[in-house]
Design a protein that fits this description.
The chain has 200 residues and is an alpha/beta fold. It has helices at 3-9, 39-48, 65-76, 94-99, 115-122, 133-139, 151-162, 165-181, 185-198; strands spanning 22-26, 53-57, 83-85, 103-106, 127-130, 143-146. Strands 3-2-1-4-5-6 form a six-stranded parallel β-sheet, with helices on both faces. The protein is globular, with a radius of gyration of 17 Å.
Amino acid sequence: MSLENLKKSKDNTKSFNLPKGIKLLYLTHYYPHKNLEVLLPLANLIKSKRLEYKIIITIENEHSPKAYELLNKIESLNLNDIIINIGSVDMKNVPSLYQQCHGLLMPTLLESFSGTYVEAMYHGLPILTSDLDFAKVVCGNSAIYFNPLEENDIFEKILKVFTNNKLKKEMIEAGGIQMKKLSTWDEAYSNYQNIILKND
């Protein structure tokens, strides 16, 4: 989704009836590189500590057999009070979803470029994501980074952000600054075009 679409949709409001607590959004379809399975031990850890963190995901059974398996595991492990699956979200309702959450949680293992990071910055959400180069290039100081394969590290970083209002505010402010540094799609296209023409 482009920021242009977000701006067009910002007046649309839809309630997702999300539970109380600090809601961490992972807006994605199911793909293996999205590393959704790490949410299971993370949710178990949150539940064992009796903390009011909720992980909001947007998965459908039809995405893949692995998606079906993941959703069944959430149910069978009684983690559906921590991992809240709301299914696919229409593009027009995405801004409302961001506004009803408190942070972006992305334990992804691979991205070419994720517009989700920029969307989170636009909506003033602190970002918690993988300690990998692709994330750092886009997010800069607007994110706290973790080992995406280690649920304890993810958990510790969640606590670090949401028990420190000063840090959270700094991250949100950094997101606004970082957004201004990022190229628009037209600028990115022009830059690539210049590189190609230069090497002809």
